[in-house]
Structures are given as C-alpha cells and as structure tokens.
Amino acid sequence: MASAQADFALKLLRESGPATSFAILSPFSVSIALAMAYAGADGKTKIEIGNTLAKGATDEELINYFSTLMMDMSKPANGYKLLAANKLYLQENFDPLQSFIDVINNKFGGQIQKVDFSKTSETAKLINEWVEEKTNSKIKNLISADMLSAATSLALVNAVYFKGDWATKFDAKLTAKKQFHVTENNDREVEMMKVTHHFPYTEDENVQVLGLPYKNGDVFMYVFLPKKRFGLAEVERSIDGEKMLQLINFCEKDNKIIVELPKFKLKSKFELKTTLEQLGIRDAFTSHANFSALSKHDLSISNVVHQAFIETNEEGTEAAAATALLMYRSMRPSASASPIQFIADHPFVFAVVKDGNILFIGRVH
Questions:
Q1: Domains located in the chain, CATH noted
Q2: Which of 95, 163, 204, 293, CA to CA, is 20 to 30 A from 243?
Q3: How do residues 253-287 score in pLDDT, each as one tens digit?
Q4: Which GO terms describe its cellular component (predicted)?
C-alpha cells in the first residue's frame, strides 16, 4: 500500500505541471478525500478510484489502510505538530445512507455539518473558515462561491497541517546568498542554508538522496537531487513509488554530509478533476457515476480542489494542505572518509515522509 501511495504521489506531482515548475501538494490529503468518496462508491466508479489509489487492494484493505493512516496522523507527537481533519458538509434536505455516515465517523473521524449550498457565499465562507482554522491560517479561500450551487449535495473536505523543527538545525549565521541554477540560461539568487552532519544518504547513477530528520525522528524531509544539473525531468520520469521508497530505505547514516539547501516557501492551488481523470478516475465525474453506497440519489463529483503550502528555513518546516471534493446531483554508497557534498543549487524534488507515507511532495525550481 505504501508503494502504491508513493506511486500516486509521484503521478500527482508529474500531472500537476512540467518539471520546470514549482509545485507543492499533499498526496495524503488528496488520498483521504478520495478514500472517503470510495467508501460511498460502487461498480465502475469504485473500481476506478480503487485502482488509482491502490491497485489490487481489497475494499477492506483500502478503507482500513487510510483509516489507520488518518488516525495515526492525528495522534499527538513530541517534537513536531501533525494534524489531520475531515469534515463532511451536507445539503440540509439531503440524507445519505447511515452506513456511509458510519464509515465517515468511525473510520475517518469525520465531523458532519448540514448547510444550505444554495447560499453559495455563506457556505464557501463557512468551509474556508474551518480549513483555515485546521491549517493554522496557512490555507485560505480553498473554495470559491462559484464552485457551489443549489445542486451541490455534499462537500468532503480534508485538511492537514505539519510543523516540525529539524533534529539538527541549520546555523543561520552560515546562510548566504548563492546562485540557484534554474535553467542553462537562467540563475536566481537564493538564501542558501548550510550544515555539516551525519545524515541518512544514498545515491544511484542519476540522483543523490538526502534525509533530513525532524525532532523525534519519525518524520523526514527527503531531497532528491539530480546528478545532472538540469536532469530533474529525467529523474521524475525514471522514479516510480517502489523506487522512491527503495531509495529512502537505502539511506545510511555512515557518511558525514556537507549540505547546502535553499530556504523555500511554496504555495500551490489545483483543481484536480483533469489530473484525476488522467490518472484513471473518469466515471465519478460523469452523469452515470455510481455512488449508491452513499445515497439513493444519483450523484457525481463536480470538482476536487487542492491547495498546499510549505515553508522551510534554518529552524524547520511548516506545511499545510486541504482538499475539497465536491459532489452534486538503488545503490548504497560505501562509507567515505571525506564528507559527501550535497549542494542543492539546481532544481530538485522533495518529500515529507512519515513511516514510509508521503505527507507532502513538491518541486523546487
């Protein structure tokens, strides 16, 4: 399941835009929203969502995996703050099946609130205020009033927030302005942080992989730095979920690493309907969608809106994301005596990972 999820994360990143663009998204947030929709789906609609999230998994495996993940993310932790929350907004006169409500409550810890979607501005404001509160004000205006209408029956909303201090902080006194090589003809100035320490590290013929632990040691940021200065597109094409997790698992702390990493702050907003259709979820968006495990009425997904934010500096990382799903009628390097250089002065991919699960994935360009 973790490998299927890593695969989904990389596909989302690839479909979000070319390798020459900035991006930040939370595959975890998108997956939880889709898993809640999966719980209400049947027939071809269910098969397509299931295959996209975790091909080959049984109904029970899929729901239990995401349920466990959701509950695990919501447990208090020392050294960092990780919060995940789900809410189901229902049209006042719309009554979903009790079995679906039970899954949302018991498996996803979801709250349920009745609203009047015909009051589009008022309801958008209500949803956005909840998201803003859950993401420490990092995600604002997730949905706009024009995404809602009197025909909207429900909105499944997931929010996730992470704030963690590095286990080994970068010394702010060493941060200096340096050139970041965007393309062959284009450099930009960045604030480059620096630290030398024993960090998890591996490499293969194409990419260097560095693990930067947050306090408490069960959440890491992994940075995938192409060996070719402008080789990011090639690296993104060649890595699938299994390979990504393999590289992460191969990381060893045998080597002292000289790390240079730019401070960065990214924000992205996507309407994921087209992306998800390209990944294989098509039926759910059509008039013959089958959500008969959710309601006796005909329902389809009108939109999936996702917004994410991340900021990384000398102290650590703050990241947040929210997804609203709207419905309506490698090789291990041998230990080296001299420190390994890990100089992130050209485009790279990063992932914030907990126990093999990708919470956030993005691209710095």
A1: 26-164+267-328 (3.30.497.10), 166-264+332-364 (2.30.39.10)
A2: 163
A3: 878 999 999 999 999 999 999 999 999 999 999 99
A4: extracellular space
